[in-house]
């Protein structure tokens, strides 16, 4: 697994863990940066993804809810919510990764970690966000 793919998965793990434990993801990130719980400390890219989601949380949730057609955030599996928040952040706010690469990476994680229908859903929603990105302020 490539370094950036691992970093994305660790970011996903943090968002998912924070939701399951009902703790603030920004606080959890700071805690893990200060005192890693794994052999390898969190990468800079993992921290960048999680920090970006925290910074843009309201915008990301609003866009996901708008383009999720028939699905509320609460109705989605928790892993899909985390994947979509991270994927939406990377598609909309990351300049160093092409949108198609970011979408492919998040679809891959949805394939590995979520339901059979999740990869298609994640792909469609993130592709739609990439499409409307130029119109967003």
What does this structure look like?
With 137 residues, the chain is an all-alpha fold. The protein has one domain (3-135): N-utilizing Substance Protein B Homolog, Chain A (Orthogonal Bundle). 72% of the residues lie in helices and 0% in strands. The chain is built from seven helices and no strands. The longest helix is centred in the first third of the chain and has 19 residues, at 3-21. It is globular. The N and C termini lie far apart (35 Å). The mean pLDDT is 95. Keywords: RNA-binding, Transcription, Transcription antitermination, Transcription regulation. It comes from Fodinibacter luteus. InterPro entries: NusB-like_sf (IPR035926), NusB_fam (IPR011605), NusB_RsmB_TIM44 (IPR006027).
CATH topology: N-utilizing Substance Protein B Homolog, Chain A
CATH homologous superfamily grouping: NusB-like
As a percent range, the share of strand residues is under 5%
- Please give the share of residues in helix: over 70%
Q: What is the overall number of helices?
A: 7
Pfam family, one: NusB
Protein name: Transcription antitermination protein NusB
InterPro entries: NusB-like_sf, NusB_fam, NusB_RsmB_TIM44
Domain NusB/RsmB/TIM44: 6-130
How would you sum up this structure in a few lines?
Residues 6-130 form the NusB/RsmB/TIM44 domain. The protein is mainly α and 137 residues long. 72% of the residues lie in helices and 0% in strands.
Give structural attributes.
72% helix, Transcription antitermination protein NusB, 137 residues, 7 helices, N-utilizing Substance Protein B Homolog, Chain A
């Amino acid at each position: 697994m490539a370094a950036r793919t691992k970093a994305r998965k660790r970011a996903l793990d943090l968002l998912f863990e924070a939701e399951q434990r009902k703790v603030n993801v920004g606080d959890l990130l700071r805690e893990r940066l200060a005192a890693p719980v794994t052999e390898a400390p969190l990468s800079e890219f993992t921290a960048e993804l999680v920090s970006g989601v925290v910074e843009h949380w309201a915008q990301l949730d609003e866009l996901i809810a708008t383009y999720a057609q028939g699905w509320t955030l609460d109705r989605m599996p928790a892993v899909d919510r985390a994947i979509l928040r991270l994927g939406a952040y990377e598609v909309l706010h990351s300049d160093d990764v092409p949108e198609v690469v970011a979408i492919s990476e998040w679809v891959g994680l949805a394939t590995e970690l979520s339901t059979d229908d999740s990869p298609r859903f994640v792909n469609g929603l993130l592709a739609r966000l990439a499409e409307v990105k130029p119109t967003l302020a």
